[in-house]
Write a structure and sequence with these properties.
Layout (H helix, E strand, L loop, with lengths): L1 H19 L4 H8 L2 H8 L15 H7 L3 H9 L14 H9 L12 H7 L3 H9 L14 H8 L2 H9 L14 H7 L17
Helix pairs in contact: 2-3, 2-4, 3-5, 4-5, 4-6, 7-8, 7-9, 8-10, 9-10, 9-11
Organism: Hucho hucho (huchen)
InterPro entries: Ankyrin_rpt, Ankyrin_rpt-contain_sf
Keywords: ANK repeat, Repeat
């Protein structure tokens, strides 16, 4: 009908400025926080970090809008939360600005600190801790940032978390401590993590 055609034309015209600036379908999905659509696009071998003319990646846009769940999905597909964009801003910088609270968690319980520890991003971890990020925050699997740092083998991150009060023997929903996960992943960081007498090797 004429009304549908008019609506379609209006929508198309509204997207023209964004398309000219090299926005991809992945950029559009992240702007709206459509995590499911992002997963679908990334499952079809879409590059996770395409840049707009201004240098923004989908992760920058998701962070700017405070869409933490979308950030987690992009990171799972090799997107970088520490990639500088316009003015040197990384997605984690933008996430802090967008939320103004580093302890705000998305639906699965991930905070910005979980995200940084999962990616082994030591400078971002320090920045988040300095912004009063909770080092003992648990996601829906009861995993803390220390669990993720141990799994990913970041010695500096582990030390920073421990120095700032991270619970050394906190267990996730499967009963695993950070020490157990480090051993399971064959990470050398086990030397700086305490032994839990109750943990089965």
């Amino acid at each position: 009908t004429d009304r549908k055609l008019s609506l379609s034309l209006s929508l198309s015209l509204s997207l023209v400025p964004l398309m000219i600036r090299h926005y991809t379908p992945l950029h559009f999905a992240t702007l709206k926080g459509h995590t499911g659509i992002c997963r679908l696009l990334l499952g079809n071998v879409v590059i996770p970090d395409p840049r707009t003319l201004q240098g923004w990646t989908p992760m920058h846009l998701a962070a700017l809008k405070g869409h933490t769940a979308t950030l987690v999905e992009l990171e799972a597909h090799q997107g970088s939360v520490d990639l500088p964009g316009k003015g040197g801003w990384t997605p984690l910088h933008l996430l802090l600005v967008a939320k103004a609270d580093p302890n705000v968690a998305e639906d699965s319980g991930w905070t910005a600190l979980h995200l940084a520890c999962n990616g082994g991003l030591f400078p971002s971890v320090l920045q988040l801790i300095s912004n009063r990020a909770n080092v003992n925050a648990q996601n829906n699997s009861q995993a803390t940032p220390l669990h993720l740092a141990a799994q990913n083998g970041s010695v500096l991150t582990i030390k920073a978390l421990l120095m700032n009060g991270a619970e050394r023997i906190s267990k996730d929903s499967t009963g695993c401590t950070a020490l157990y996960l480090a051993r399971k992943c064959q990470k050398e960081e086990v030397n700086i993590l305490p032994r839990d007498p109750g943990q089965v090797d």
